[in-house]
Amino acid sequence: MSKQVRICMIGAGRVGKLHSGTLKRYVPDGDVVALVDPVSAMLNQTGDEFGIDGRFPTLAEALDKTDFDAVIITTPTFTHRELTLLAAEHGKHVFLEKPMAMNLQECDDIIAATEERGLLLQLGFMRRFDPEFVAAAERIFGGEIGEPMLIKSLTHGPGLPPAWANDIRTSNGMIAEVNSHDLDCVRWLMGSNPQRIYLETANFKGVERGAHAEHFYDNMFATIKFQSGALGNISGVCPCDYGYDARVEIVGKNGIMQIGSMQGMDVVVCINRDQGLITPIYRRWPERFAWAYIHEIQHFVTCVQTGTKPKVGGEDGRWAVASVLAGTKSMLEGRPVLLEEVLDPAWVVPWQKED
Ligand SMILES: NC(=O)c1ccc[n+]([C@@H]2O[C@H](COP(=O)([O-])OP(=O)(O)OC[C@H]3O[C@@H](n4cnc5c(N)ncnc54)[C@H](O)[C@@H]3O)[C@@H](O)[C@H]2O)c1
Hints:
By secondary structure, this protein is of the alpha/beta class.
């Protein structure tokens, strides 16, 4: 029998709950033996819901008082570097939620801390494990639509994410919090790194929803030129209010491919011929990517058991952060920005500069 993987879940919020539920229901080889969150109400609510007895306010205390093989980090982006470095210092393998970090220096520190000790690092880009995205990727890489020339990717989320995620200073804004997934996906599916990005943003609902942070935006449109010469665009809307919508279209030299649809379920109702067909849309991201979240956690547990490098790791996370930084610089300066302008790890967005 394979060795049981003991996991410390860091963060008991939305994603901490999602991954705890996945491990309990779908990954018999993985056990959440510790849960960490400084907010005791969250800690106890999630601990009770998933029957996790080891509960700690800090990772340091969990490391001191219990034993585990790996951590799953589901905390706000600005905490990722510190938590990964502490876990790595104690020899723990790391599953880290996207976005990897706030800047490239933090990404490099995370990569170095895990690589130096031979530890595994998997990034939470679950679309790479979604059955539809995986099938599409295999068919693109198999040459079915020919060389990819153009890609359009969109993510529209139903509601505002938590307050820290709406403050560009603690999250790097919607391009990081929502559209990181698109940034990773377009690079993966096109088989090419981004070369230049131009980002336009708009704010339609922020004020009425209480999102007052400077530079807050709830609509974005990014145009990307890839190193291969191909073109792409990414659109983001959050909150869109109508459901969770994630779709991609790729045009190759020989044809076109579409991934995803607005229809969330194969149940269609008609009770009024004037109104027509009613079909449900996915309500939230845990529904749309249910299998992707299960497969990515199963993959991580198998990688820890077998010592195999995860399919999506530090370099992928770093490219997505670089795209976030170039996009943000583009928004602030109102011009297209080359990725090479932000690739120096010392480059940070203005609000991260020390006085
Ligand atoms: N993969 C996805 O589809 C997806 C979806 C949503 C969010 N995320 C990412 O997951 C992460 C968490 O997002 P969320 O929506 O769950 O946020 P959340 O605010 O709901 O939960 C975060 C939790 O972390 C806790 N926390 C803060 N600092 C901590 C620390 N130092 N140690 C332990 N716990 C700490 C908070 O108290 C909170 O309970 C972010 O990186 C976010 O971008 C990924």
